[in-house]
Amino acid sequence: MEMINAVGRRKTAVSRVYITEGEGKIVVNDKDFRTYFPNEILQHIVIQPLKVLQIENKYNIKVNVKGGGFKGQAESLRHAIARALTQIDEQYRPVLKSHGFLTRDPREVERKKSGQKKARKRFQFSKR
User: Is 109 part of a structural domain of the chain?
Assistant: First the structure.
């Protein structure tokens, strides 16, 4: 099997994933993913597509992640892994789609408007 690559996005985070056959190592920005994401919840988010398909120890995954915070990066990584797995085998697609891993979450931060405190919050109105 040759190297398969895919891109995943969430908020402002972008993940580029490279998958090869191996023993289940996940390396994020030249670090083990458990070191890069010390929070167990984020680690769980990253390996969700592999756990759902029960193929945790079948592929080696190398990742480059940029932008966003830890949560956005973890979710963009999940998106990228799911997309790459569908390139490997089309039979994975219905399972991953039913769990929502192939859908790009479109929610972004709304910009701050001038003349206001935040995106929607206004300054206090004074009648007199």
Answer: no
